[in-house]
Amino acid sequence: MNNKLRSAIVGGVVIGLLSGIPYVRLGNVICCLWVIVGGALASYLYIKKSPAPVNVGEGAMIGAMAGAIGTAVELIVGVPLTILTGNPESKFLLDLVERVDPQRVESLRQTIAEAMSRPFLEQLFYAIFSWGTLFTLLITVVFAMVGGLIAIPLFEKRKADAGPPPPPPYFGGTPGDIYAPPPPSS
Fold first, then answer.
1. CA neighbor of 42 nearest in space, from 157, 152, 183, 179
2. pTM above 0.85?
3. What mean pLDDT is reported for the chain?
């Protein structure tokens, strides 16, 4: 397995686990924190193993790969865990809505209870094959890419070989003569 894929898998697993565990996933409320951390971790791991300096394009690509892998891990781990634990964040949301708008809490409670009363496989199917999952994939890939981009200036301290400097501009005369600026025009 190459270094890019290995780094993306590690970053993706971090994204998926931290985004899939109930209550821990609330860190993503803070500007997709776990997703950015996972993308940055993937780039960091790639930088550490790369023999040549890593550019921002590679950091973005590794972050995006980690985001896609993270979404898959979140679906595999997080969705069943959420269903089995009874969606604890929904209870938290109900308490919050009850404090803000007590008239609306009952209809929200019925909607959640109806969704949770479906059989496990039906809930799992709906959670995986929905527009929300496609949206989650898009957001996760974009923010993990941002994490990968952020990691490059933070962790890549090697300078890329720029090659020899360009020659000075040529203003006429014989090549090899001492350079003199052009005479002022009158």
1. 152
2. no
3. 87
